[in-house]
Amino acid sequence: MRGHDQTSMGGIRETFLTTHWSLIENIQSGMDKDKALIGLLLNRYWKPVYCYLRRKGYDNEQAKDLTQSFFHEIVLNRDFIVRFDKAEGRFRSYLLHALKQFLIDKHRIESAQKRIPKDKLVPLDIVEPPELPQVVTKVGLEDCFNYVWKTELLDRTLSHVQACYFDQGMETHWYAFNDRVVQPILQGTEPPSLREICAKHNIDDEIKASNMIVTVKRRFQTLLKKNLRSTVISENDLKGEFKEIFIFFSKKAQD
User: Any idea where the domains of the chain sit in the sequence?
Assistant: First the structure.
């Protein structure tokens, strides 16, 4: 979990699929003159793609180049949207399938950089390439991709919740929630008692501390659903993703 990150969540609008498809369609229609839209798309998905490629055996520079080429050659290609099977319901599943197909075509990989105009590239060196988490070196390629995607989603959501409470001058709400809920899950430890929370953060009583924690937890769940909603087709898919991400959140303590 990073520090007081200022993050943006939920995409352009709140309807299903708007985030991803509007971004891609607007990019293709020439509305992304300053590359802000492709930057947003990259920020949401480049790390899972990059880590998948590293886990597959490519070094840092190769993985960066291939990630760049994949987004330009495939994600910005109109056929990418046309081929999408909406019955799948998950954007990341469709993206991962496209990545696998992309890697099969060795000729395209070798010549991609020669065909992409330099002024069309969106550099990946604006962010620090992540170290591969130890756990992903022991799992399959697809599990690696999904692990990084889920980790990034949780980190982004928690960072935004933290920023919301800091901006409102309600830091104690965040610290109580973080100490009571987040850190015990991530570190695999027993949560501190409400009495300990009150003493540490100078909260009047345990009932007040409990209410503060519940308030932050509800906001976290709301923002997490908002993030997930932009990646699925229906409310049923959202429920499945929401359940899966919480199971994953709990299991991270065992990594």
Answer: 18-254
